[in-house]
Every structure is written in C-alpha cells, then in structure tokens.
Amino acid sequence: MQLRENLYTRTGWEIEEQRFDAEQLVTNGSNYMVGNGYLGYRGTFPEWTRSEYVGCTVSDTYDSADGTWKELCTVPNGLYLQATIGGRRLSVFEGSLEAYRRSLDFRYGVHSRTLRWIAPEESDAVCAEVSDRRFASYDNLHLLVARYEVQSAHPIQIRLGIDGEVWSLNGEHFSSYSARAHQDCLVVETVTGEYGVSVVVAHACRLVGGPRPASEEVRLEERSAYRDLAFERSDQPLELEYYMSVYSSNDVADPAAAAAEAARAAMRSGYQELYQRHCAVWDQKWARSAVQIEGDATAETLLRYNTYHNLIATPAHTDHLPIGARGLSCQAYQGAAFWDQEIFNLPMFLFTDPTVARRILVYRHRTLDGARKKARDLGYRGAFYAWVSGDSGEEICPSYFFVDVLSGRKIRNHFNDWQIHISPDIAFTVWRYYAVTEDLQFMLEYGAEMVFEIARFLVSHAYFKRDKNRFEFIRLLGPDEYHENVDNNAFTNYMARHAIWVALRTWEMLEEQHPQRLEELVRAIGMNSDEVDEWRAMHKLIYIKPVDPQTGLIEQFDGFFQLEDILPGDLQQRLIDPGEYWGWPNGIAVPTQVAKQADVAQLFMLHPDAYDTATMRANYDYYEPRTQHGSSLSPSVYAVVAAWLGYSQKAYDFFIRSATVDLFNTNKAVSGGTFIGGIHTAACGVAWQIVVMGFADMRLVNDELRFSPRMPQHWQTVRFYVELRGAKLSVAITPNSLTLNSEASSQASVACAVFESRVQVAPGTTHTLRFDEPAGR
Amino acid sequence: MQLRENLYTRTGWEIEEQRFDAEQLVTNGSNYMVGNGYLGYRGTFPEWTRSEYVGCTVSDTYDSADGTWKELCTVPNGLYLQATIGGRRLSVFEGSLEAYRRSLDFRYGVHSRTLRWIAPEESDAVCAEVSDRRFASYDNLHLLVARYEVQSAHPIQIRLGIDGEVWSLNGEHFSSYSARAHQDCLVVETVTGEYGVSVVVAHACRLVGGPRPASEEVRLEERSAYRDLAFERSDQPLELEYYMSVYSSNDVADPAAAAAEAARAAMRSGYQELYQRHCAVWDQKWARSAVQIEGDATAETLLRYNTYHNLIATPAHTDHLPIGARGLSCQAYQGAAFWDQEIFNLPMFLFTDPTVARRILVYRHRTLDGARKKARDLGYRGAFYAWVSGDSGEEICPSYFFVDVLSGRKIRNHFNDWQIHISPDIAFTVWRYYAVTEDLQFMLEYGAEMVFEIARFLVSHAYFKRDKNRFEFIRLLGPDEYHENVDNNAFTNYMARHAIWVALRTWEMLEEQHPQRLEELVRAIGMNSDEVDEWRAMHKLIYIKPVDPQTGLIEQFDGFFQLEDILPGDLQQRLIDPGEYWGWPNGIAVPTQVAKQADVAQLFMLHPDAYDTATMRANYDYYEPRTQHGSSLSPSVYAVVAAWLGYSQKAYDFFIRSATVDLFNTNKAVSGGTFIGGIHTAACGVAWQIVVMGFADMRLVNDELRFSPRMPQHWQTVRFYVELRGAKLSVAITPNSLTLNSEASSQASVACAVFESRVQVAPGTTHTLRFDEPAGR
After folding, report:
1. What does the alpha-carbon distance between residue B45 and residue B43 come to, in Å, rounded to a whole number?
2. Which residue of A188, A232, A638, B356 sits 20 to 30 Å from the alpha carbon of A3, by its own alpha carbon?
3. For B360-382, how does the pLDDT look when each residue is reduced to its tens digit (9 = 90+)?
4. Rounded Cα gap, residues A586 and A575, in angstroms
5. Residues of B marked as catalytic
6. B381 has a chain A CB within 8 A of its CB
C-alpha cells in the first residue's frame, strides 16, 4: 500500500522506500531510526559518516560544548561498515542502484536495506548485492545488533568498526578520545568536556557465512578503531554480524569494561538469539499499546508508526531521565523534556503501562531541586520547572537562540522565564496519574511534595488586583508561542487554579489520612499553614477568563480580541524572508490574532468537562482558522476537540496531519536559524490520545471510565487496550457498539459507561453495549 | 564673541551666522525661529518655500492627515517675498553672497538678514543689497511683522504675499484652499481635513521708502495669493513693510474677518509702532526670566537663548493649550505636551511667572476627560494622562512609528500605554505648584480633581504581591526609554507613591477646610471613602526600590543589574545601521545596562531631599557612565545632580551640553525613520533650572526658600529673579555671598536660608548672607 510518493507499507507494520532520495538525509535519518529509550540510532547506512548525519544519541550524556546548548552526545559509530567491491567503495551516491529497498519494521524496530549496486563504469562492470539490517536491543539497552550480507563476483574488502566522525549539532562534546583494540573487540573511550563523563563504545563482529578473510588488520586512529578484512573472489555471499555497545560512567562504574563485555557477550550469542530476546520485549509493548483500526489501514499504520516512536523515545527503564522533545532521534531540543512530556507523551502510558507514566513523573520529582533553583534565581519560591529539562532539572533553555534572519541579530526569547504553565501542567499530570492509578504511595513519596512546591511557585508568581479582587498572572507565554508577554492567558490561569486545587486536595488528603507524612513533609520543605490559607484564597480568586455570553468566546489573553484580525495565509504574505520567526518580539504574528498553535483549545483538551459543547464549538470555530499550526503540538489538539464536537472530517484530517508531521516532513527543520528537525515525539505520543481520548472519547469521571465514541465513518472496528487500577481491558468499538473485555488476570472490576449505558466490568467478563450513532455531543 | 564655527554673539542677546550654510536648513530654521506661544515662524528667508522647510506652525490646529500623526498645521506663508533683480530671481543658493549676516535677536525676538547678492554671471553683473527682518508680535499674537529693504542699480520686481507651498511633515492637512484679494490685503482661507477648522492667513503690505511701483498686479493661485510689484531703476533703496495675520475658527467665530482686519490694522500702525508695543511685552518677560552671569558670557548667552525658546514655545496666553515638545518650531512631536512640560518647562515659570505655570496646569485639568478616556480604553480607572497630549488630552501617540531600519518593518512602541509615570508626574507638579504658590483656589477648582483621578488610576494599575505584602507596578517604561516592559522602575514607583501621598494630603486638606467642596467633588466624580482607605494602604505598601546597603545603589528596575554591563561607546559598535533605534523591542541597548537617559538620577532631581548625598553620589557614579544621553532630557538632569554633588566640572559640562542641544545640533533629526528634529523645548526650559535649582540649589523646604550655591568657579556674580507667594526677590550670588532683595511691591515676606544662615526677607529689604565656599554637600 502506498502512503505517499516513495513511501509504502506492506503489512501495516513497516514503512518502506523504494527509491533512494539524497535530499532526505536529515528527515529519513530520523524517520527510519531505531532505538530503545536508552539510545537512538539514526536511519543511516552502514558506510555513512558525519556528512550523512550519522548519529547514535545516548541518553544521560548532557554536555555543553559551545557554552549555549547543553545537549546529549552522539557517540562514535560502532556500526560503521564500508564495503569495497573490486576496489570501488560502495556508495549509494555513486554508480547506480537496482532493486533498492529500505525499510523500518516498527513491529520489532528493525532497519534494513537491500540493493544491487553497480559501480560507476570505468572499465569492467563492478556490481554487488547488499543486504543489511540492524536493531537497538530492548533486551540489553546498551546494545545495537547488525548484520551485513554482500555478494559480488569481485574481490571484497570490508572496513568495519567504530567511526568517530559522527554528526554533532552544536560542537565537539568530547575532550578526549582513546581508541584501543582488544583481541576480540574494538573500543573507543571518550570523555565529555563539561562534566567529564566517560562514554565508551565497543564493537565486535563475527563472520557467519562466506569465505574466510585473506587478510585482517586493525587500524586505530585518534577517534576511530577499524578492522580491515580482505576477501578473495567467492561465489558465496559474505555474511557478517557486528555489535555495538555503549556505556557511560553515568550507567556503571567501569563503562569500558562493561562495553567490551557487552560486545563480546553479544558476539557469543549471535544475531538470531539476540533478536529473539529483543522481540519478546516488543511483543509485550505492543500487547499494551497497539491499536487496531479495521477499515483504515493507513490510519492504523500511521498510528503504529507514531506509537513506535513514542515508545523508543521514552526512557522506560529508569525514573531519572526525561522524554526528549525529539526523543533520541538527534540532538535537537537538547534531549530534554518540555511540557510535551506530560501532556502529549505520558497519557498513552498512563492508560497502557502506568509504571512508565510513574517513572516519568518520578523524574520530575528528582528534578525538583532544579525547579526550586530556577524559581529562586528568578525571584520566586517553590518549584518553577525548567522549560527545557535535562538531567538535573535546572533550566537549560538558552535565553538567546532564535536569530532575526533579517538582521542576523539574536533574539531574546522568554520560553525559559515566562512560559510558566509548565509547572501547573506537571501538577495536573501528577493528579491525573493519581486519579487514574490511585497510587497513593506515589503521592506520599513524590506527588505531594511536587504539587506543594508548584502551588508555592504560583503563589509567588501571582499578583493580586485589589480593585478587582482577583489574582492575575502577568507577563506570560501561553501555549501559543507567538504571543509572549501576555496577561491572564486563559489556559495558564485555568491550569494554575487547577494546580492550586490539586495542592489543596492533596493537603487535605494527607491531613486526614497521613498526618504524619504531612508533618514530615511540611518540616522538610519548611511550610506553614498560612500558606494553605493562601491557596484557599487563590483558588477562589484566580481570574478565570470568562465565556462571553454573547459570542461564547473565551479570550485567549487580555486584549487578544483587540489585535488585528487576519488569517494566517494572508499574514504570511508579510514575510520578508521565509525563515523569519513569526513570534516575539517583532515577528509578523505578534500584533495579530494569528496563533502558532492551539491555546484555548488546549484548555478544552485537558479539561473536557469544564465547558459545555456550545462554548467549545464557538471557540473552535473562532480560533482554528486563526491558528497557523506552526507547532507540531497543534493539529492533535484540534483533532481531539473536533472529534468531540462531531466535526468528523476535520478531526480525521487533523489526526492524519498530526500523525504525518514527520513521515510527510511537513514541519520546517530550521526556524530563526536554529535546527529544530528530528522526530516530533509529542505528535507521536498524542496519536494514541487522538484515537482513544478523542474519537472514542474515553475519560475517567468520578471513578467511572466513560466512552462516547464518534469514530470516523469508515472505521469498522477499533480495538485497544486500557489498564485502569489493576483492570486490564480490551476495548472494541464498532459504529454502534462497544465491547469491554476484562482479562481474567485483572485485579479489580471497573465501572464503565458508554454514553448513558453503565456497566460494572469484572475480571474475566465481557460486555457489549450498543448505542445509536450520536447526533452530536 | 564666537560661540562655535559660524556662530557668534555680540551683546549676548543674539546669535549670528556670518556664512550661509545650505546644509543646515532644517536645524537653523528651528534655531533662528521667532514666535510668541500662539505661532512659531521658522528661521527661513523671505524668498523660500516648501523645499527650504518654510513653516509657520499655528497652535490649536490639530489635524491628522495620514491617519497616524495628529499634528499642528503649518499655514500658508503670508511673509513670502521674492525679489527679482535685473530679471534674476534673488536666491542665496545661486550667485554669490557678500557681507552676509543672519541673526536672531532673542532680546526682542527679531530675525534679520543682510547680504549683498551678486547674481550668477551671464552678461552684465547684477547685484543687490538686501536687508530684511521680522518678528512675531507679542502684542498681537496673531501677527507677524516684516520689513524688507533692497537696493540695486537694476530694475527690481517684487512678488510678495501668501505662498501656500509650505513644509508639512505628515501629509496635507487642508481639505480646501481659497485665495482672495481685497483692495488692501490678500487672504487665503483653508479648512482642516479632520475637524473642519477654518484657518485663515491674511497679508498686507506697504511701501515706506523708494520709488513707487511702475506696475502692480495681484495673482491668485489655488492656495496662494501674491502681489507683483515692478520698479524701475532707482538710486533709492526700496523699503517695504508687510504683515501676516493668522486666525482660526478655534480662536474667533469669523477668522477671515479677523485676519483681514488684523492685517489692515497692522498696516495702519506700521512696523515701528508694532515693534515698540511688542518690545514692551518682551521687557516684562525678561524682567522675570533673565539670568545674569558675570564672568561667563558664553553661559549667559546660552542660557538666554534657551530661555527665549522656552518662552516662545509656551502658550502663556491661554489655559487650554500645551507646550509642545518641539514647541512651535515645526510639527515634530505633534505640537503636543509630554512629561517634559511639567518637569522641564514649567519650573522656570513656577518661580518667575506663576500665572503661566497655573495656566499650563489648568490645561491638564481641561484634558482630564481625555485622560479618563485613555484609562478606560486600557482597562483602568481614573486619569491616565496621554503620553502625547494635544488639544483634547486623548492619547495621540501612535502605537507604531519607529521603523526597524534593518527590515523596514514598523515597531510597536509602548510609550502610549506603558509609560505611566506621566500621571504621577502631573500630580507631583500640581503639588509643587501648590506648595510654591499656596494657590488654594487652584487646588479646589482643578488640582484636587486631578490628583484624585490620578490616584484612582494608580490604584487600578497597581498589583499587590500578597507574598511580599507590597504593591508593585508592572510592565513599565520609565524615563529610560530603551528599556520597556520593566517592573518596579525606581522612579515610577517613587513618583506613584508620592502621587498617592498628594491625593491623601489634598483629601485631608479639603476634608478639614473645605468639606463642602470635597463633598461636591466626590459626588461629581463618584468617589467613595473606601477609595481613600486604599490610598492609605497603598501609600504604606508601594514597593520603593531599596538602597543597597553595601553599594549604595538603587536598582533602576527589577533585574537591571543582571543585564549585560557594557558602556555606551562599546555598545555602539554593535550597530548594523547608524539609524537603528537602540531600544525596545530588539535594539542593542535592550539586553544591557545602557540607559537612554537619566532615570534614577531623575528621581533625585525631583526629590532632592529623599536620599542622602552618599547615595546620590554612588548612583551618579554608577549610572552616568552607563547613560548614552540619547535623549535631550538627559544631560540637564545629570548637570543638576552633579552640581549638588560638587562635581563642578561635570555639572558645568552637562549644563553646556544641555544648553547647546539645538544650537550645536548635537541630537539626530531622525530616529528609526521618524523625524524628531526641531527645538528641544525641554532642554531650553531646564536651562534655568540647572542654574537656579542646580548650581544655586534653591529649593523650598517647609516654607523656607533654601539656597546652597555651588557655582562654577569662574562665575563671579549670578543674578536672577524669583517670585514666591507674592514676594518678588532679586537674588545675587557671588562665590561667598548671597544677596536677597525683596521689591517694595512684594506682598509678603519670605523665610530664606543660605546654607545654615537664616533670614526673613521683608518687602523692600535687602540682605546679604556670607558663606565659605562649601567643601561638599
């Protein structure tokens, strides 16, 4: 099935290109990547190097090379392999390619390529059949496993090993390199410049078919270690397996020993055995997160593809690392968490694999000190979470990175100090996690401290208008990033009030049920009960932007409706340079109502029960046409709200748009001079939400799991898995029924509702509830 | 005495140029202007027209031609005169000039020119002796009076009358023109486009010497009316007097009749009689405002020159017009009042001619509704005075006028909505006026309402920080205009608290002494006593930026010291284009500590007793080197504070710098694409302050007029006039004495102090107090 020009799928579990496109190195390197939450390896070819954007991005290796961008390191490439056929270096850029196929199997995370290569003709025709594949092991996260087959009528030379010439976005992160050869493996040790983290790559290989090498030699360079193998002419295909392992001193005490041992162990096990172990883990993951969409193979494929990227971007193995906004696809966005993590990536895990959701939130607890420091540095109290959050949680968002392309002068952005909604977003998610899981232990150990500190921050940020008897939030940057320096952003104020409510509820819960823990916590963070009184006052008096009784509109922020009313297409005509940033301080969108992304709609998405349908509709109708969707976070939000409003076609279109942000390469890779390419993990993570929380409209209301499905008309049956408080549910939705099956191993029954029908779903039972297609929500 | 290249004075009462400089048309047109507070007539030559920036700017003729800039009109030039000598049009741009002199006598406001003109040689040499002069009558403000003498061996033709081709800065303000000829005068009637104000210019002339014309003809064009006179060869000089009068329908019901009648009456009186009446008024003005500086003729001349411009810029004849920031020298700054009016122009009048100070303040009362409207439009209460205040007091500062010269895109400035200190500046001045004059009637009729409404505005603008128990002012633009969008600007917060204090003091005063008027006022503006409680709360809790006990520094605004510390000269290197605006949003000064102008020092200037000398010194030393003095308001403030600190040389240098802003043409005429040339009336007005309130350090403290003179060393005797509560004092200061003489006509005695010596100065008495030169303040 063709998805678009040069993009196909056969089973719905892979994407494939049938023509090599040299223009798409950056994009396809991300789209076809493999990874496992510890590392990401770009979808590049074995013989490629720095100039083709080869990069293996390793988590927990933050380093600032240029003093501006703290980012993850790309480590030396231990899966380098350059074949030379009849004296001609194999290259997809030269000669001609026949029977070219490159695919990414996202069922099991395998990148593979086959081709017949004919060297550029000089004298006798030189050609070779090549097939290679690789995966990033989910069984051992430090391991990448690859296989290379090549057959030719000419002599073959192979150089493979560790190539130190890899892509690094912002400078050289390693202050030293040391290449070594052991008997059975190659090792390159590096040390990061800023913190002196030792990062070690090891490489091993074994020949599993074809002739023995006529010669074998090891070559060490400053930052590379290669093994050169030369083969005589042979009728048999040459078959190689090779292994790359990575450890850092943040992982183990002796990363050099660990890396070498992992490479050796991999060599002992061999590709096939490693692959089987790896697949077993993927099977478990997909059992939870795969969604089946009968009647729409495209949507199904796209959803799986996005889910794949959400999974491999997530450091599910640990509770001390963030989900990067570009995952591990490259170094853009600094391998760091934004609000994307909680709002876009996390919900899928919350309902399918809550342990992972918990770990992500524990990461936020581990970074509380960083958030406290940020608050303190900016003159606030409590926890002001980093807009860009790396290992420590200290703010690593530079104050300057966009460049005014018209003058070449840097622009001070205020993502780091004005976009305060990050803190209430986290409080919201803590509470959502608790509401879904009832994980009291989490609240006692982590959640309470976080929400108290967030409430404190909000208290210290808020201004009280005595003449209006209300608290206001001033000088904000809401979700719509084109409008900085605004007051009372509807989304931010609502989220802030909710966060205060969460803190109050948590306080009361602990006061009633765990007074000792509360006392302990209060002592630890130096709280007093006056503070709680202030939360109560704030909860009553935070200014919530009203719904205009005439128009039904909620103003995005104070004065928004006084801005110039123009549509994005017309506004675009004002660009002098297509690379201009549209936003603050002097971009073309600033004096207008054109928003970068969903803002009021974002509020609806997170608080679906706060406003009635007429209000949502009025605001959708007003704001959507004025939204440029200049952020990959935007179409998904409108997809969800459109689904709720019964705007079926719009919802579907926005779903497809959101799910193809990367695959169809619709977002620009550079904005205001800064590289922002790579996988948009938020868009990947939210795909599941659009289907389950948008189209199926699943929400937890007062301990009841409610569904109000409004599926696209051509979707026959949609099946997905949901886990709720120990109940493991398979959900199947047809145009007029919803079937709930609770696995026998479920630990609890759960109250469910489909529209007005209610049912208690006990372990091991199946219930089908029928409904007429709803006329509207 | 030479003041600089091509600038001389003979008596200290005039300036003179001895070489015609075609490069300085714009600047000299302003510097050599004549005017009388009703109109301003640029220092141009009789035969000039639009391309030489001829303009007679008339007060109270506000019109917006281009929809952006509301400005005063320049009316048709009724003093146009083109001589043609032997068939060659006299022009200073062609031929050659001998014995050229052009001067401005500021004793009596007379512009004059003499020259011998030799036409460009073609056949026989044509030459003429020319002498012309003009003044703007102070006896009849609607009248300009001119005289022209020309002598030549060749036949002379004269075209004179009303030329409609005059300079207009921002578009065509008149929707219609109508030119008429009466028997004895010419008339051009115009109507403004926006409000339909009829503006009429009349012209009359008479021959007073030389031959009778051989022919005489009237020529009417669309917007011009000329009289063509042809003379035969004659040995006698030709002597003409001619008169221009201007009336608008804002002045009288029938401006056409009034203008014609004024021209005719002038013709009947003749130049000499009109001049005598005019001089009598000037004599009165100078009796009050002239300062004598023995030992420094330069300083004396400069001070008089600046005082002249302060006088002619001021509409002393009425209480319904503002002092324009460029006076009536041109249309720049929209003929409108800024805070300059109260802080820079007014104090000289307050102490020399308090009636004028009163009128200026009554103007602010007349514009209260405009200030209320502005507050309402921006979501506030009370009176938020216009940053740029024309006739109605509604805000006429456009939101966009600076252009980013690098992109050509307009910049949204926030002078109009963020520079809130204008309102407390006015409250401060109301109180200062009352303190100096004890004019209770003014307070009852005007002042109280103004300061109450200003306090209301401040209440509605302030935010209360509950966690810090203080009121804050957020998103400000302080005096330093390079830094917009700042919080708790030290100057603004202090001024706001003072304004609240003024409102409270006024309230208490009325409550005790005039409860009926208070009740009336309270009813009229709908106040209640809760509001006064809130003033009391605010007065206690407005955040006043503290003095750092270590450094003695007051932070200009929150976070100022975190900005990049760089000096203006170094910063300037970052300019890409010399015409760039340095300020908001993305100018080079924004992320730095470089200030456009005095800001913390401005606070000292207005509140000299609020901080001790050590604090003033620490802040002067810190801030002055970081000040670019990019505003003409800046050097004067540093001059005053430097004088107080005993920084004699610096004080003197800043005095000279401030007093020569126009004369030495040190400020740029265009910034960010906007013409900002013309006379800097604030710098003119403040010159008197620098001497009397800076060097002589005269201040009124608890009903006592205190002097602490620290004059420049080479000043032998400084004499000036001060009026205080009916006492008319002549003050003479030598290096070690101060003599106070109270005129016999004084109506009260006044308590004075010179350093620690105190004296009661009764009418008709003279007291000399001696002192040692102070070592420091």
Report:
1. 7
2. A638
3. 999 999 999 999 999 999 999 99
4. 12
5. 481
6. yes
